[in-house]
Amino acid sequence: MRILSAALAFAAALGLSTGTATVAGAQAYPSRPITMVVPFAAGGPTDTVARLVAESMSKSLGQQVIVENVGGAGGTRGAGQVAKAAPDGYTLLLHHIGHATAASLYRKLPYNPATDFDAVGLVTAVPMTLIAKNGFAPKTMGEVVEFVKANKDKVTYGNAGVGSASHLCGMLLMSSVGAQMTTVPYQGTGPAMNDLVGGQIDLMCDQTTNTTGQIKGGKVKAYGVTTKDRVKSMPDVPTMQESGLKDFEVAVWHGVYVPKGTPKDIVDKLNAAISTALDDPKVIARFADLGTEPEPKDRRSAAFHKDFVIAEIAKWKPIIQSAGVYAD
Ligand code: MLT
């Protein structure tokens, strides 16, 4: 026992990590740029949220927070990369609701979303919109439902892979309409949006952080928003519930994670930097332009985020099981 305490004192003097945070290490953190992995393609909604928050976090942390896009497999490729990274605070993951649904959707997930990460903090919950290429015939949400019922798999629906938010919304839409469309997977809804604007695919459900500009620019048609209330930045777009899809409600919550075992002092420092970013007037204004807002203060702790992810995994499991949609 005495040898161990001497060793611990020696390690502390060296600022080496003993699994729990050493003040020296945390005070020195960060001493070099930090990578924030976004598990979807550049230019999409999650990338937009990440770059806004990362820019503000760089200021308060005094080191660059650099976004790295690792798309594929509905976000599980990027998440898997972070699960295996060193728990030293230099590799972060910014992911969304897909982190929770992957636990039920993927039969062979190379990591456990609940236990292989430490939750750092929630960022924002983004509404989604159902949009279509400009040449798509239906004028209203009601007509979309009839059109999909009549044409089924002749209708092409773009998404960012199994487990992505656009996949989840599509699954909810197809089960509420009672008809299956043909889905076209992409590495993210950034590239999917290019094909929708180009008329290569018919429909997509995507986050307002990616659709607002295209809708306001008249590049796509908008049928409905997936939140209970209309979005302030697009007051003319009705809710899916107003259009008769009564239980249709989904918002894409986003949070930041680090590999399991990252020292608590470092997690606390990152959590504080996220909260500072969410109070940043530039971030607040840009979020508002894009139809979303920062998580309120009472939902910003790492502990709240941890419990929230566990609750979301439990909530989506029966929904996914009843839909019978799985990915290997
Ligand atoms: C993206 O950033 O591409 C999206 O979050 C993908 C999705 O989940 O639909």
UniProtKB/TrEMBL annotation:
Entry annotated with the keyword Disulfide bond: no
Family annotation (SUPFAM superfamilies): Periplasmic binding protein-like II (SSF53850)
Name of this chain's protein: Tripartite tricarboxylate transporter substrate-binding protein
Gene3D superfamilies found in the cross-reference section: Bordetella uptake gene, domain 1 (3.40.190.150), Periplasmic binding protein-like II (3.40.190.10)
Keywords: Signal
Family: Belongs to the UPF0065 (bug) family.
Xref: InterPro entries: BUG, Bug_dom1
Region forming the signal peptide: 1-23
UniProt keyword annotation of Signal present: yes
